Amino acid sequence: MDRSKLSSESNRFIEKLRLYLFSQGIEQSDIEEVADNLAQKLYEMEQNNEPIEPITEQSPQEYLDELKKAVNETKNPSLSWLIPYLLIGAIVFMVFGDVLRGVLYGEIVAYSLFRIGSTVVIGVLFILGALLAVRYTSKNEVTGTKEYQIFAIPAVISMLLFIAAYIMDGYVETSLVTVQFTGNIILLGIGTVIAILLSIWAKTWILPVILIAWNFPPLILENTPLGVNMQAFLGIVLTVLIVGAYIYLEFQEEK
């Protein structure tokens, strides 16, 4: 950029920054890249009559610290959105397959009071654990891999509790809550809408992809002459391929 278009104050700060980076042993090409980016930013601020003093009155180190913080926040956004996404997504996942089969085959879907109650309790515990994780990461300004690890703790514990509750459901005798055909249609519609809205909000379609990959291959394979074991094997393969393909495409787009 032609720096002659900049004010003397902007040019003076850019030179201070260049000298500071040079004193830190930064390569010349990197110095010029940082300087050009800053020059473009200052030029736009001056053209829009924005005050440049918040930048030019800083020391070069203070400016670089703010720049580094902004880059880290961009690369590592807060994971607090995972709290409702994981909880609601898990509930939709558990119900979707049952009500889908109920709609397609007219089956009566039934859930024990133990399963319903355990889901509610585990959900509340997950929310409390996730809120503690959010509070800890916010208070200690944790980012990157450590933030993922902290948020993974309540998620993993809740998943293990869900598995334990699912196993215990076969041994604990409680009353059943049945869902008839009409109820299955309503629940299927609600689950589909929630999955779509949740994906739009979170800006990721992984939940609908998992629902499709997990439930539809087995339904399709059931109508083939293949044996039960082969159907189960191919169902798992197709599920992995569909989800894997989506994750790969997402990664390429992000890259």
Automatic annotation (TrEMBL):
The chain crosses the membrane at residues 78-96, 108-136, 148-167, 179-198, 205-221, 227-249. Keywords: Membrane, Transmembrane, Transmembrane helix. Residues 93-212 form the HAAS transmembrane region domain. This is HAAS domain-containing protein. It comes from Oceanobacillus locisalsi. The lineage of its organism: Bacteria, Bacillati, Bacillota, Bacilli, Bacillales.
